[in-house]
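agent> fetching stored inputs for the zinc ion docking request
agent> found them:
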Amino acid sequence: MITPESSPSPTSPICSAKGCRAAAVWVLAWNNPKLHTPDRRKTWLACEEHREHLSQFLGVRGFLKDVVTLAEWEARPEASGESGGSGESSAADR
Ligand SMILES: [Zn+2]
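agent> prediction call returned; pasting tokens
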């Protein structure tokens, strides 16, 4: 019997680019002012190959706020969760 590879390593985050299954190395932090409050950060993950493509996509729209390595992002104290700090507004913003 041959067991198909059903589970790639669950610990490594995957690139957010469409169709890409490469391990993510970069975190792109962005914010859409029409949808999000100014201190909100959405994140995309990117491999080496797609970092530039994804950051340009966000950059031309003026959404891109930050590009850091995954290791650096996870080391940030404020990275975990989306708690912005002041005003515990976790309510819906759609
Ligand atoms: Zn990729």
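agent> quick read of the result: The CA atoms of residues 35 and 73 lie 23 Å apart.
agent> awaiting further instructions
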